[in-house]
Structure prediction request, 357 residues.
Amino acid sequence: MRERHRLHAGSGGNRVKWQVAAAIGLVVAVAAVVVAAVTVVRHDDTSTGLAATPTAAPNLTAPPGGAGGGGGPTPPKTGAWVGAVVQPPDFTKKSEEQAVLDWESQMGRKMDVVHTYHTWDNPFPDEVDRWAVANGRTLLLSWGGTDTRVIQSGKYDDLIRQRAAAVKAFGQPILLEWRWEMDRPNLQSQIWTPEDYVAAWTHIRAIFARAKVTNVSWVWCPTADGFASGRAQKYYPGDAQVDWTCADVYPGENDSSFQTQAAAYLDWAKQHPKPAIIGEYGAYGGFPGGQATWVQQAAAEAKQNPLIKGLVYFNWDDQSGRPRTQLSLRGDNDAVGAYRAFVADPYFNQRSLPVSR
Prediction:
């Protein structure tokens, strides 16, 4: 993705969360030079038109994925889920939950998906994860990484077994996204090589499989930029190892449209007919046409591509104050209106949840 994250220890005990530390544009700029978090920029395209040719829908008659069976949430047969990463005022359980509720109130309906983040050694699922699922939302849980070669050595096997046991005991289906944006240049001292990443992924999955964890679908999520540059594809663990594909999509330093930024990922995903999710997407207020245009572009692209089964907005303002890192929609009435219209569309409300007008 185009963001980097830093650890933030909130007042709620030992809860550790990821907080945005660098702007999408900034990381993208760094990434664009060598390439970055969710994006490489191709050309400046601010059109809101639909793609010319719809993508074929994935085969959803069987559970997604291969190894392990992909026992997580069943994607909608038609349409797509909507969700968000919601920035709380602080990282207490009460604040994080209230932030989700406030977002849903402003946007007119309950979200299908709540996206949370955990560091490598942070236990999960935690209280907020459990609350989200208990109250009718699907959990997309991002699990941070560590040195892939140390993972392969077996040093962390006990920790991995603990996480597997906790997820199994939780018993509810979740989407688990291990070491998202592994293709970001600033992570390579930890990732080492694509082969090391794939070996670490396979090692972790094997431990979960031996623990008979059947309530997880594994989500593989590089940056959209990485697909455009040809870098991300090298990290793919293979169809037998992945249940959902994913990309984090941001405008890039050239303020390219959502369609432009997502195109390389979606072209690649056509060759891997699994459910796809946009794990993060967002734009700053200076995006041509405003944030409302970006929201509309994402919705239009999802309706044109049945592979896309989820769109998760990254509603966060970086503390740096840099304009390109201010992604929250909350202060933009036009953007809020566009998002409300988007999530009220029956295509994106397959559960027929109540919608406030």
About this structure: The two ends are 33 Å apart (CA to CA). The chain has one domain: 4-348. The beta strands are 4-9, 16-22, 81-86, 113-118, 138-143, 174-178, 216-220, 244-249, 276-281, 308-315. Confidence is low (pLDDT under 50) at residues 1-69.
